[in-house]
Amino acid sequence: MKKIILSIFSLVILSCSSDNDEPIKEISVKLKFTQNWDGTIIERSDLENTEFTNKTGSKLTISRLRYLISRVSLVNGASDTTKFDSYKLVDINKPDNLTLALPEKISEGSYKLLFTFGFIDKDNISSAYTDLNSVDWNVPDMMGGGYHFMQLDGQYKDTLGIKNPYNFHAVRAYNSEKDSIFDTSISIETGSILLKNNATIEIKMNAAGWFKSPNDWNLNEKSVDLMGDFEAQKDISENGKSGVFSLGTITQ
Amino acid sequence: MGCSSKEEIENVYTPVQVSLKIPEIFQQKLIAPIIPTNNPLTEEGIALGKKLFFDPILSKDNTQSCASCHNPKKAFTNNTRFSEGVDGKLGTRNSMPLFNLAWNFDERFMWDGKDFSIEHQAFSPVRNPIEMHSNWKNVAEKLQEHTEYPTLFQQAFGTSKIDSTHVTKAIAQFERTLISGSSKFDQYLLGKTELTPEELNGFNVFMDEARGDCFHCHGSDNNPLWTDNQFHNNGLDETFNDLGLGAVTGDPNDNGKFKSPSLRNLAFTAPYMHDGRFTTLDEVINHYSEGLKQSLTIDPLMKKVNQGGVQLSDKDKADLKTFLLSLSDNNFINNPDFQQ
């Protein structure tokens, strides 16, 4: 396991006024994304190596895990919201690139952190983001367009113990017959976080959670061609809403 | 005095900075190409790089240039399965076409990604025993004694002392200008031409997760590079003679993985795959449709491997091929800037 040492430079703003008011500190915040399988950390070295078991008992390995986080904002006690106009493609194959530094500083204080898994419809515009196009993150227009929310690919063992691929891709649900879409992005809100210094907030993603509650997922029934499967996308989204993302440690 | 004033003029010569001519469709869809700050593009550097690229002086016996294996008329590859080096020895990999290299954002070159950066890649053919089989000391000496090169290096890099660093920088500058972005399909995306119904269906086969599902690795209308420049095992073999990426990383999970090639210019670049095993696109399509082989490191996107492949109908196969050919760019292979 690689330990990342974060050097935190805290910026102290000194007040010049003659009275002794405590200055309000401006701090910067980073989000750090970690992944686990029901608590066991998943790192790059686990890719194609470590076998996990999902809720319905299928043994599987993970080859690729990338997912998109957008619309990060911090809401303080007075319900003032600071929105950060950025998104982050998390790729566990790129361990040096698992943090998102929020582009603006905030005042110290107590906050709730809000973010979205995937893109809400308004943001999910085909071809709009050149950096995402450049890493092949698009969804073909025939499958509703926009961008992937997640690519979780790997191999599972079927009931006969034979290795089979799975492509667990989360996208906006699209019904091609009716040409209707359903927003399957997930908005997540953490409990209150007290931020006093420059901080790194860990966001944990439990990959096992995608395969359970409320929809226990049987890979023997559905494992590939999920992008154009309206019901599958709704099920994935429902599973994502229940406990896949959680707040981890806060370093400050 | 005449002598020293001439030197002074040479020393103050500043090369003319140029920027790449980025195709409109790349401008719209992609992030900026990679140009290292220590090797900015200049007219003089590019011209010098081009001269070097076509000059057999870089090889041991002055018989082979980069262009011997990277022919502009063939989208800068050649049509033999393997290439003969100066000593008549055959390599074990198919030569690669050269275009849009500045958009390889991870900068990992060769079939197995062993060379980081275009500059660095250009070091290897010169000393590779199965390619130009020379060494940089000899090459630098030959260039230094040449009637034109010292002046050209002076103009491009401000020094007439020739070394491998400047040779590879010049070649890399030329290589970055090799841009292919005006195929029929590019024109279609820009609204300047129509596709035939066959080409359109072929595109849909390519994009449809439930049919070809090629876009996850080979780009799309929104990634007009037509490659992800990543490494995958696309089901060619059960066991591997050539470990590919695995030999570079030492990780057995990378065995049998090779870089996804761009699907631009396939009309000119046969044979196909890292070892040139397929002579036609029909063979390639049949491979994905019913010829996949299971192996330890096969990519999960080869999702129907246990059924042999994605099982395309004859019509879908034919249309897919027609679509793939619409990605070939005649303007690129005929661009006068790229000919010797």
TrEMBL record, chain A:
Domain Copper-binding protein MbnP-like residues, every copy: 28-223
InterPro entries cross-referenced by the UniProt entry: MbnP-like_dom
Source taxon at top rank: Bacteria
Name under which the protein is recorded: Copper-binding protein MbnP-like domain-containing protein
UniProtKB/TrEMBL annotation, chain B:
Cofactor, how bound (note): Binds 2 heme groups.
Signal peptide boundaries: none
Cofactor: heme
Chief location category: periplasm
Entry binding sites for heme c 2: 214, 217-218
Keyword annotations from UniProtKB, A to Z: Heme, Iron, Metal-binding, Oxidoreductase, Periplasm, Peroxidase, Signal
Superkingdom of source: Bacteria
Stretches assigned to the Cytochrome c domain: 197-328
GO molecular function ontology, one term from the record: metal ion binding
Subcellular location: Periplasm
InterPro entries linked to this entry: Cyt_c-like_dom, Cyt_c-like_dom_sf, Cytochrome_c_Peroxidase/MauG, Di-haem_cyt_c_peroxidsae, MauG/Cytc_peroxidase
Residues binding heme c 1: 66, 69-70
A GO cellular component annotation in the UniProt record: periplasmic space
Protein name, UniProt field: Cytochrome c peroxidase
Modification after translation: Binds 2 heme groups per subunit.
